[in-house]
Amino acid sequence: MSTRASQARDVLAGADPEQARLMAEQVILVDGKDNVIGRMSKRDAHLVKNDLPLHRAFSVLLFDTEGRMLLQQRADAKVTFPAYWTNTVCSHPLYLPSELGEEDKGDAVFGAKRAAIRKLSHELGVSPGAVTSTDLTFMTRILYRSECSDGVWGERELDYIFLIQKNVPLKPEKNEVQQVRYVTKPELEEMFYEAKTSEKLKMTPWFTIIMERFVWPWWDVILRDGLSRLGELQDQRIHRFTG
Description:
By secondary structure, the chain is an alpha+beta fold. It is 30% helix and 26% strand. It has a single domain, classed as Alpha-Beta Complex (Nucleoside Triphosphate Pyrophosphohydrolase), CATH 3.90.79.
């Protein structure tokens, strides 16, 4: 066995077999301006010793028609940030023509939307067709970096942020999601306070950034007008929270 393969095996020793398998998926490497520069396995792109190569990701925040946000608690089996609470679904577009956006004249937003629909089905059991690309409202992009407490794994991502407002049936995949919860704005504020003041509840770093920098005022608009009035808050910028 090659040294590279042996090292890959060692860092995933004891990992859940399905989660280890998914770490072989190929993510999209980008530069700081979101230009595609290559591909890499999810495993290698999330190793701190590799300096966490920058890659595309997406974060979906789904609201029901009452204006409550759907959260998930990541499964204990997850390799990065296990058991943390986070937004509805967060993952990666893969290095595929459909998710690179090549089928849409290079439109990366459409590629990320396809990836988001795929993971809503995989993680939360959202039926095919229950959420379409037109249901996903693109808001902005963030670039952030964060390491897990084990010092082995981490994230350095250029993250596309999407909002949905729709009621959808759920059937969470236990290997991905420990539990789900719809929360009101005051309830989520209380959860963030608890996360900051105790070790009992943990929030993922990307969700924390997205909420603190963007979503609280967006939520006020959603409660008042739904998604239809969010256009003036959208932008094409890359908001940088790391180098």
